Amino acid sequence: MSDHKQFYLEIKKIKPPAKQRRQYEAINYEKLATLATELELNKQSYNYIQLENQLKDLIYKSKAIKTKILNLPRNDWINKEVNSEIDNRNALWVEVKKNKDDDNLKIEFQAKSSYVSKFIQNTKNNYYYKEFTKCYHKPKRMWNLINNLANNKIKQACAPSKLSVDSKYITDPKEICEIFNKYFSTIGPMLANKINNTSYDNLSYILPKINLQTDRDLSRLEPCTISEIIQIIHNLDSHCSVGIDDRLKYSRTSNETVLLASLMQCTDSI
C-alpha cells in the first residue's frame, strides 16, 4: 500500500490558450478595379513595360494588412457567421438568467439554441464535404487531409530559420526567400551554359519544314481582337498556387474588362 495521500484540486476558472494569429498582405480587388477604372487605362496608349509599371503601382495602393486566426484543422470550419450566431445565443442566455420569470424569453432562447446547433452542424458538414470533394481522384491530397485532421495540429513554417551564404548567416525570412528566388531563377541558364553544344550546331532536322513563301498565315500578322485576349485570359491555369486570401481566380475575372483595351493596344503595337 502506498503512504501517499491523494490531493484533489478544483479549478473554478481557467483561461484557454490564445489562438495563433498571422498577419499577411492581401489585395483589395474591388479597390484595384476602382482605381484602374478611374485611371481610364482603356483610353491610354501603353507599351507592355509602361502598363506593367502602372499595374504594379495600382496593386501596391490596393494592398492591405489582414489578420488570420489559425484554427486547428478540426476547427477550421468555424467562421465569422458561426461565431456571430454563438454570441447572439449567449447574449440571449444572459437575458434569460436576468429575467427568470419571463417564459417568452425562455422559449425564444430554446428556439435560438436549437437553430444554432443545427447551423453549426450544417456548416461543419458542408465544410468537410467541400474539402473532401477537392480530393476527388487525388489520393495523395486525400491522405494529407486525413492525416491533418487526425493529428489536429497547426502546420508550422518549414522554411529554414537561417541560411549560410558566402560564409554569412542570414536570418531574415525575406532575404532567405530572395536568395532562393535568385538561385532557382538562374540555375537553368547556368546549367545550360555548361552543356557541350558542339554536336547541336545543325538544328535543321529539329525545325519543321515549312514553306513560308506559300503559307500566307505565317507571313503576316493580323491585329488581335478582344475575344482572343479574353480566351487567352480564360485559358490561364486556375489550379496554380494562390495566396492566403484565396482570391487569384476572382482577381483574374473581375479586372479583365478594365485591361482588355490596353492589352490589345500593346499587342497590336508590336
UniProtKB/TrEMBL annotation:
What is the protein name for this chain? Uncharacterized protein
- The scientific name of the source species is Euphydryas editha (Edith's checkerspot)
Q: Give the taxonomic lineage as stored in the record.
A: Eukaryota, Metazoa, Ecdysozoa, Arthropoda, Hexapoda
